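Hey,
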Amino acid sequence: MGESDMMAFFLEDVLDMLQTWESECLALEKDSNNPDFNELFRIAHNIKGSSKMVDLGKFGDFIHRVEDVIDLLRKKQIDFNLTHVELFLDVHSFIESWLEGLSRDKSFFPVDEGLEHRISAIKNTVNIKISTPENTNNQATTPDPIDQNDQIANEQGEAMEIIIHKNLTIANMSEILQENKFEKGETYLVVIESDVLDTAGIQYLISLKKTKDIQVNFKITKRESLDTLARLGLEGMVL
C-alpha cells in the first residue's frame, strides 16, 4: 500500500469513527447523570495511533490533548457538565474540517485558538475542586471590589486595559475569545463587568492567569462575580 493509499484509508477510517463520536456526544447530552466516556476515549486513542501511521504529528498531538480531557472525566478528576459535550462536538467539527483539508494537502494545519484555549483551561482545573460548601453558614470573605480595584490599578501602572462587559458564561465564550486578544510580552488589566460567572468563565480567567507569555491581573467590579469566586474558594487562583 502506497503513501497515498494509506492516507486515503486513514481519512476514511477517521470519518467512520467520527460518526460514533457524534453519537456518543449526543448520548452524553441526553443522559448527563450517568456519563460513560470509555467509547470516546477509545476513539480518541485509536485516531491518535492511526495519525502516527501516516506521519501526522500535529494531528496526533491535538487528539492527544483531547484524549487527556476525556481521561480526566473517566477518572472523575474533573466534574462533568454539558460544556464538555459542547467541547467534544466542536472537536468533532474541527476534525472534520481538518480531514477535508488533509484530503487536498497533507501539510494542511488549521488553527482554532478558541478550541485550544478551552482544552487547556479544562486541563488546568485538574487540581481545583469547584463545589459549593456544604455549610452555608461558613461564608467565605469576599474582597471589597473598590479596595481591590485601587490596589491593582496602583500595581499595574501602564498596563493595557481590556474591559469585558458580557457575562463570562459558556454561551458567550466564543464571542469573548474573538473580541479579546492578548499579545505576548504585554501586561494587561482585565476589567470584568460580568454579573454572572460559570465554570467556563472561571476556567477562562484561570487559564489567562497561568499563561506564561503575558501578565494579567483582573479588576472585578460586580459583587455577584466576586461572591461566586469566594463561594467556590477560587479567589486566590484568579485575584
